[in-house]
Target: Lipoprotein
Amino acid sequence: MKLAFRFKEGFNFLSIIGLSLVLFTACMNNGPVKLPLEQIDESTRSYGSHIVQDILKSIRSDEGAHYLIEKEYITPKIYQGIRNSGSAFGESYFLINMMLGNVKSYKLFGGEQTQIIKSLRYKLKVENQDLKFVELKIDLNAEDDLAGYYLYVTSKDGKLKHENLLPKIVLR
Model:
């Protein structure tokens, strides 16, 4: 009987330690941490700018999102997502072209860092004056490959508030 009691004591002690460890690590991950522009190195800025140019080119291209498939920097997730959701990307690219008009310029205005993803946020200056804010956000994984991209729009009339115009990547 004494042996069973020791096992229970040890089990309870291990359970408390395990639970404490889980709670401690859960509290450490509070989501993305904002990266000031001065902490984003020049090579990452240049590489991000190159990717943004390609994404904007793909939106204007007849190939659409398939233009990005040939790029060396896309992850398998993006590759499969474009292959599986090609028509959804085609429709959203068409709507984006109609809604934004020409993209006049873009500028890096912020960044975020999670444990494995670095996000670069670009403000787009577009032809359509009815839009208050347009943001293209790209996610780069640890190898600096494109892990996701999003186009957020906020309209001046308040009907659109930070709405992503790109389809969600679906893997099958």
